[in-house]
Amino acid sequence: MSALVVPPDLARALHPGPPDAIELIGLRARGHHGVLEHERRDGQDFLVDLRMDVDTAPAGRADALGRTVNYAEVADSAVAEIEGGPHQLIETLAARIAGRILAEQILVRRIEVTLHKPSAPIPHPFSDVRVRIERSAAATPAVLALGSNLGAREQHLSRALALLRAADGIEIDWTAPVVETDPVGDVAQDAFLNTVVGIRSERGPWRLLDLAHALEEDARRVREVRWGPRTLDVDLIAYGDLVQDDEELTLPHPRAHERAFVLAPWHAARPASELPGHGPIGPLLARAEDRDGVRPGPALGGFGA
Fold this sequence. Notes:
single chain; about 300 residues; alpha+beta; GTP Cyclohydrolase I, domain 2; Alpha-Beta Plaits; 2 domains; six-stranded antiparallel sheet; four-stranded antiparallel sheet; 9 helices; 12 strands; about 30% helix; elongated; nucleotide-binding; 2-amino-4-hydroxy-6-hydroxymethyldihydropteridine diphosphokinase activity; EC 4.1.2.25; Hppk_sf
């Protein structure tokens, strides 16, 4: 097997640098945590500092809150944990703050929590007691659709899969068989080869979208006609249970629920799957108007049988 040749621009997409960070410093709330009975009875002030790894570039491009973390919501979550409990240890409280924010904020991929207990019952002069922890979000399941109807179709799909395997923060979970499909729309063009790939991603959805675009550029895709012929099309179909309506990244993909060229290979690989907001993919496939234009494609190494 020949070595995978990766040009510099694509290498940066496969191996991106560290994400940006949003920090919330000195958030104060009163809680009833401690080993001693009077601490749990009378309470005391706690302070928390939060550092969250977030890709801020999409929000910066559009000046859109929906593309980043709402730090008022983050503050509400941290305060709710401080005011809850009680817990004997601030280690426990710090872990609960981190876990709650990671669960509620899908764009936060890693968080550092520093929890301060400045009134800790220590019989000596001191300025602060603090615990600092780091936690990372679990890899998020996502579904990508690949398609090609121009040039060396099989090679375009195989290279895209190989590049996905080489990308940092992405694990291939499953692959679907390749199908050949009639083109959808009014543009006269050759048949497509389509398939679907399931991944587990440590990247946020926007960094996945950037990678998808980089894979298309690597295949020298040209965007001249909507739904026209293309060397490679890479669409982010679903990212966990995330549902969002954004002009650049709508999730799940706004037409996936009615496209047999996405649903058929997906159903062949994972028949029990569901498309967020639309339900099981089996009934969706049965209703898809283009299902008669889908037929078995070539067997390609690395893709599902």
